[in-house]
Amino acid sequence: MRRKQEEEEREKMKRRRKGGGERGGKGEKENKKNRIKNKKKNKNKKKKYKKRRRKRGRRERGRRRRKKGVEGEEEGVKEEEEGEKKRKRKKRGGGEEEKGKKNKKKRKIRKRRKRNDVGVSYINLTCIMKSFFPCLSGPCIPNPCHNGGTCEISEAYRGDTFIGYVCKCPRGFNGIHCQHKCSGPLGIEGGIISNQQITASSTHRALFGLQKWYPYYARLNKKGLINAWTAAENDRWPWIQINLQRKMRVTGVITQGAKRIGSPEYIKSYKIAYSNDGKIWAMYKVKGSNEDMVFRGNVDNNTPYANSFTPPIKAQYVRLYPQICRRHCTLRMELLGCELSGCSEPLGMKSGHIQDYQITASSVFRTLNMDMFTWEPRKARLDKQGKVNAWTSGHNDQSQWLQVMA
């Protein structure tokens, strides 16, 4: 019996799920009717709730209006009472308002007096500070030196002008105010360093001595068939030396190889030595040790390669010792650095510090004898722009000159 009942219940459930059969269809219709009835009931409830809220809002508004009317009457009575009091005070001759105005005026006068007292004390303090501390103003206050330079008072002159101070620059900077980094070329490539200042341990000779690869050919980016220095084949310890003629700060070196008889030659590694007198030499060491520093050289014959010296070298003579060379030790080079003092700074031709009347010449050239195209000495300034942008002498001989009074 139980099994039959369970099976019947299962069949009923299946019919309801599938929505098939008479009983299943009747159940769905009844559910739809119930849903529609519930929706209508909910709508009616919402309408009733809204009506109630509207009625409550009307009642509250009416109460507020009544309260405002009562309060307005009370305020009117109070204003009338206050007006009567004011009339009585005026009849008595004066009142609290006039007293209050007088008190305000007295307070303002007191504040002004206090401010004047503070200003007088401030002026007195400044006068006292200037009388007791006259050194607070001077050529070194504020510090005119840049990049950590120290200012020292001295009787220094720049041309005809008195400066009154000297800047001592830290490592890596130079200039009057330590404004320039010490990394400019010292003049091997440009020709400032003459041929006599460049010497070497030996010179290579080729083609029965007709080709001579002298040390003064070791200038960076030099062109031509013989465009570099090459050491002799039998020289086991070659070197090349530059005499700077005065003690300078050297911060780096640029090396470059060259081609000789169609084959690339260059220095792969080298050492650096320096001296102040050309007799006693010191090798550049690895920082914090006694080992000689071996610098990396070139990889081909044309690409320049730069190495920096940290700390920089302060010396008059600099030597380069090749260690490993490709075929032969062939070199073009340039030294980087700056002056120890500010003596190499521009004096003012370009900037205009040197005025026009300070520049004179032996003669002047005029194009087509026109004053508009006069090549005057005052136009002999570096990087000057325009159609007439230089000085030209009126005669082509060796007696012509240009003079600058700095």
TrEMBL record:
CDD domains noted in UniProt: EGF_CA, FA58C
PROSITE patterns for the chain: EGF_1, EGF_3, FA58C_1, FA58C_2, FA58C_3
Domain EGF-like span(s) in chain numbering: 136-179
Start and end residues of each F5/8 type C domain: 182-338, 343-406
GO MF term (any one): signaling receptor activity
Disulfide bonds: C169-C178
Pfam family, one: F5_F8_type_C
Ranges of biased composition (kind: Basic and acidic residues): 1-12, 19-33
Gene Ontology annotations of biological process type: cell adhesion
Region (Disordered): 1-115
Gene3D superfamilies per the UniProt record, alphabetical: Galactose-binding domain-like, Laminin
InterPro entries: EGF, FA58C, Galactose-bd-like_sf, Neuropilin_MCO_CoagFactor
Recorded GO CC terms: plasma membrane
Domain of life: Eukaryota
Biased composition (Acidic residues): 72-82
Keywords: Cell adhesion, Disulfide bond, EGF-like domain
Bias kind Basic residues: ranges: 34-68, 101-115
Designated name of the protein: EGF-like repeat and discoidin I-like domain-containing protein 3
Organism: Microtus ochrogaster (Prairie vole)
